[in-house]
Amino acid sequence: MRYAAVLLLIFFLPLQAQQVLKGVVVEKESGQPIPSASVTVSKAGEQQLLTFARTDDKGAFELQLTQGQLSQGQQTGLILTVRSLGRKAYTHTLTPTDLQRAVSLKIPLESSDIALREVTIKGAPVRVKPDTITYDLSEFASEKDQHISDVLGKLPGVEVDKTTGKISYQGKNISKLMVEGLDVSGGQYRQVTDNLKADAVEKAEVLENYQPIRALEGKTFTDEVAMNLKLKDDARDVWMFNLDAAAGYEQHATYAGRLNALRFAKGSQDLWSYKTDYTGKNVASELRRLSSEDNGNLHAVSFPELVANSAFSSPIGMNRVRDNRTNLVSVNHLNRSGDYQQSRVMVNYLHDENRMTNGVDETYHYGDQVIQTQERQDRFLVQDHVAAEWDTEQNSTTSYQRNQFQMDGTWDRGNNRLDDVFQHLTNQRLELQNTFHHLAGKQKSILGFRSHVHYSYSPSDLYFQRPDMEAQSQAFSAHQLFTDNQFYTNFNKQQFHIEWYSGVSGNLTFTQLDKGNNYNPHRLQLYSVPSASFSVRKMEAQLQAAVNYYHQPVTHLHQLYLDPMLRMKWEPNTRWAVRVNGSQTHTLSSLTSYYPHLYWKNYRTRYQMNDVVPALTNRSARVETAYRRVIQGFYSSLALSAYDMHYNQTTAMTYLDGVFLYQALNRTTHSSGYAVEGRLSKGSFKLNLNAMLDVAYARSKGGTYIQDMKQNYVSSTLTLTPTLRWSPTDYFTLKYDGVFTGAQTELTGSSTLPMLWNMQQTVSLNLGFPSFNATFSADYFRNELAENQFSNLWLGDLDLNWKANKKTRVTFSIHNLFNKKTYQETFYSTVSTTQQWIHLRSRECLLQLSLSL
């Protein structure tokens, strides 16, 4: 998606007075430039051509008319004609004004029934244009699909993570999801995909090489992918309501409910939602930002938090393991003024109570020495979270301005009971931040300014009781003010793009531990980053060199780093793509890695760092090639990546009297590794079949310290991920997902730990008719807990869905059909082996009524 200045195509004409006619040819639907279009000028009523040109790869053309041709045109008139295969011809009568002065025309071409690049017929399920792939969702959706996320997962090349809701295309996460060209969710697009009705969307557009800032189109290197949903006519500018109410039983009464309202109009969009849940579902996942924000090159700030309640996690989905009571209120409103200005307001409130029971057995290996620990945890965590955001934006082809203000407040209260141990931890957090971005530019250059200010306050209180020591209490608080301010410029000359940004960032940090130990690690950073991009035909390359200077008075830190980066992309045609990335980066660790005072992390872990700031040097490279035949539904890719990391400090672990003590050692350590990743995907539109296989192999080596002695390790992991989606008719759908993982660790001075295989397979079968369908899904886990010792687990779910009418559905569900109690697995982490078990929710029956208005 690139617009650029006109690239001249000169015809040498007789030496006499001439007039120059310039312009750019674009697609009417998307505004994208059209290369290789023919541009001709002829006399009105005659077929004889006076002059001719073709557009370059940026859609630009230039014609020269002699004085004689101008005189003829003033008498009979001249006709400008533009043609491009797969598009309707465009004609324009050149007026006397056009012929008397230099003009620059913007000519839109409308798609015709046949579009080339990949020859497709109008009405086919997929249409391919430069940088845009359009899916006709009527060819993929069925009456069984409730929300648009159900349909997107069927599209060739598109994946929807069933746990997080994240959408990716060709393995690359989308950077923005829009509806009718607008992003009302601010990156929290699960609020859209999980609530927008499937039958309300007509098309899904995948936008490759996406640049959200119009003034930067064609001026900066971009490899982002976005998605735009186009609604049906009857779904625009109307309120859509969804109401769900469910009740059931799982050892106790359970319930769930949802009420939301959606509206997508030309000038404004709204998402209003209230959800309550007592069935284990993680409704708070709607608040997670799944797509990236436009923060340019601003630096991120690490939060000064030493002690925190860890979030619940589960390898088989939180809905199977947690007992919850959740309420969520969310309001999103976007207003658009004209073609360039918009503002967005978002407010969320979450109250979440969670309970979970699990156990962990850990074994740490060092030569012939073995450290073993065992614990059972009954965890209870309560969180209240409120967030608000006000975002204003002006986005034109010549200037851009955006201001984003955010406020977040969180209050966590966590209780852990571990047999004879009790722990209580309270965390509070208040964050206020504002990001401002302004740029202005001409056709070939821009000048911009970015600024970010972030204030945070985070107190925490830890209390625990153990039978072998006195009760312990610890209070920690931190204030931090961070800012980053930078100027940047961009100059575009023919195939070259020069960008340079420089700025200053820093933080004022004040911490206190137990009212006696104060530590104020303020930091200053100066940086300058020049980069040059080269674009010719189908190839783009970018070379960048970042210079960073760090100063931190309390730790006597003075460091100057040079970090180069190279990126290249070659797309010889719409089928092949080759990408090469290489970089070196230096990263300074966050406060938790050099906080000098001894503190408790939890009831069994203490940290004793020193005031030497750990620095990480990472050199990495990646080569990737991809081949696709979109119309045939075929995709493949192969990537090789490698890294080499050096640390100027490490951490040694000591275990004594049931307490882990981590201490800093001023010793240089090194780790390295490589990975090979491949993907093969094939779809059949006639059979409505989509099959994919991902293969990944990773190998890494490094070392860690236990009791001041170094233990080297080599870790290898092989992962196979097959998936299958098959819907030969509207009455039958088969889904299969598999994850096969093999892991092995080799330890020097000790025997190699055995290769362990974990296997997870999910089969979902849907049988149904327009008014009734049944879905049965089964999960099978076969995990190798130790050599030749396996854990086998079958989990089943049944859903019976009756569509009473177009607006009413009744669903009866049984979760954990076989009433299994425990999940077990073993995994390696550098030099440790961890075996965990998690208590599962019991069998649950649920009756749900859904209304769509």
Strand and helix layout:
Blueprint: E1 18-27, E2 38-43, E3 49-54, E4 60-66, H1 67-76, E5 78-83, E6 90-94, H2 96-100, E7 103-109, E8 114-115, E9 120-121, E10 126-129, E11 132-136, H3 148-152, E12 158-160, E13 167-169, E14 172-173, E15 176-179, H4 190-193, E16 201-208, E17 225-231, E18 239-249, E19 253-264, E20 268-277, E21 323-337, E22 341-366, E23 369-395, E24 399-418, E25 421-441, E26 445-457, E27 460-466, E28 469-493, E29 496-513, E30 517-519, E31 523-536, E32 539-552, E33 557-570, E34 576-588, E35 599-602, E36 605-608, E37 615-629, E38 634-647, E39 650-656, E40 659-665, E41 669-684, E42 689-706, E43 709-729, E44 732-747, E45 753-769, E46 772-786, E47 789-805, E48 808-815, E49 822-829, E50 832-839, E51 844-852
Parallel strand pairs: 1-7, 15-17, 36-40, 39-42
Antiparallel strand pairs: 1-4, 2-3, 2-5, 5-6, 8-9, 10-11, 11-16, 12-13, 13-14, 16-17, 18-19, 18-51, 19-20, 20-21, 21-22, 22-23, 22-50, 23-24, 24-25, 25-26, 25-27, 26-28, 27-28, 28-29, 29-30, 29-31, 31-32, 32-33, 33-34, 34-37, 35-36, 37-38, 38-41, 39-40, 41-42, 42-43, 43-44, 44-45, 45-46, 46-47, ...
Which parts are unreliable, with pLDDT below 50 for 5 consecutive residues or more? 1-17, 113-123
How does the overall form come out from the CA principal axes?
globular
The N- and C-terminal alpha carbons lie at a distance of 38 Å
Mean pLDDT: 86
Strand content: over 45%
Oligomer: single chain
What's the total number of strands?
Answer: 51
The radius of gyration is 30 Å
Count the DSSP helices: 4
- Into which percent range does the helicity of residues fall? under 10%
SS-based structural class? mainly beta
Largest sheet: 34 strands, mixed
